Automatic annotation (TrEMBL):
Functional description taken from the UniProt entry: Catalyzes the methylthiolation of N6-(dimethylallyl)adenosine (i(6)A), leading to the formation of 2-methylthio-N6-(dimethylallyl)adenosine (ms(2)i(6)A) at position 37 in tRNAs that read codons beginning with uridine.
Keyword Iron: yes
Protein known as: tRNA-2-methylthio-N(6)-dimethylallyladenosine synthase
Subunit structure: Monomer.
Subcellular compartments: Cytoplasm
Record-listed [4Fe-4S] cluster 2 binding positions: 155, 159, 162
Keyword Lipoprotein: no
Residue stretches making up the TRAM domain: 374-436
Family: Belongs to the methylthiotransferase family. MiaB subfamily.
One Pfam family this sequence matches: UPF0004
GO cellular component: cytosol
HAMAP family: tRNA_metthiotr_MiaB
Catalysis: reaction(s): N(6)-dimethylallyladenosine(37) in tRNA + (sulfur carrier)-SH + AH2 + 2 S-adenosyl-L-methionine = 2-methylsulfanyl-N(6)-dimethylallyladenosine(37) in tRNA + (sulfur carrier)-H + 5'-deoxyadenosine + L-methionine + A + S-adenosyl-L-homocysteine + 2 H(+)
Amino acid sequence: MSDPKKLFIKTYGCQMNVYDSERMAEAMGAEGYVTTEVQEEADMVLLNTCHIREKASEKLYSDLGRLRALKLEKPNLKVGVAGCVAQAEGAEILRRSSVVDLVVGPQAYHRLPQMVAAGGRLVDTDFPVEDKFSVLPARKVTRGPAAFLTVQEGCDKFCAFCVVPYTRGAEVSRPVARLLDEARGLVAQGVREITLLGQNVNAYHGEGPDGAWGLARLVRELALVEGLERLRYTTSHPNDMEDDLIAAHGDLPQLMPYLHLPVQSGSDRILKAMNRKHTADAYLRLVDRIRAARPDILLSSDFIVGFPGETDADFAATMDLIRTVGFGMAFSFKYSARPGTPAAEKDPVPAEVADARLQELQSLVTAQQRAAQEAMVGREVSVLYEKPGRLPGQMVGKSDHLHAVHVQDEAGRIGQLVRVRVSGSSSNSLAAVPVSAAH
Ligand code: 5AD
Ligand code: SF4
């Protein structure tokens, strides 16, 4: 028998791409491919791309440039481009880069094995009628006790800056029964924590046994799965935070006290221009309701600075909102004009103004992040061990609040959920020691 062929996948962008990359690896696994971490030894290289900002898109072409040498050395090397750049640019990628053999969009990647078998240079950016998840082989857990599970894809919100409604298409929710099956399968393979993924995850409305279910019902049902200790979900839109989901944060111990709830801006004028369909005040009231249900919840958000038309006063309103909420974590970006989106037609804010605002915003949220971490020192928290640390006798995992924690634990095992006491806080993680050997 010949050696199995090797597949190298590079994943850019969001957690859904991480999930998709795993599913593509499984699809190619069924064709005899094994994954490798070493690009040079690959028979096939798959770049799972992100289109959200210009910089993310550009990475594809610089990586393809670097692959040229490898392809010269290994003429049979197959190069595939998947993900949102594949969806947005399609055949243009084949024209721009001669090393590329296959271009496959996020809704068509279950057809990857057929494309590879067919040979030649092919593009598939369809939104097929068949559900890719029902065609793909069953999940194989390779990444430890915390797994992603895509429950919803696409977006109908059409924020003026965002390519997602175009690259991922309209909102589609997976049926409840399939998700329960997938979750149970993951748990049977040792998974203890599942993060439900969707571009608009809290707009989930999948088919249940008695009509459409919202995310709250799905989460409540998943909480009944024996052995599933922790649930999270991301990313949510403020307008889709239904009452029962907020209530679930108060009464479901499995639902972790961390919520990524992007607001993008604190200025009503800019929120309107962004087509976010809510005000800053509505967001603040929502935060109050969430905190009433779960007082220790840690909130995180995305921010865009330098959106077309953003004035100093608009930016000041964003900074005020950040001070009012106090985020445990935040991701901030300079506005990037994306082809085909409404905002791309408008005059940009000067780059140096946007740069200065980004710096100012980032120093505020970094200070808030640090404060949230330091507030954990001395407290007892739970950590799910995901891997050994770099130092001997050390385990690394996430706390309920999604802080990375390094635990001094000689006997620690991957997949254990351990009570620890936080002893220190550094820039990106906490240090801790176990409080009991009971687990
Ligand atoms: N420019 C800058 N940031 C963007 N995001 C989405 N589109 C753009 C854009 N055109 C940010 C938003 C979103 C996150 C995933 O990426 O903040 O929440
Ligand atoms: Fe993009 Fe807005 Fe949809 Fe989020 S809600 S994916 S930012 S269009």
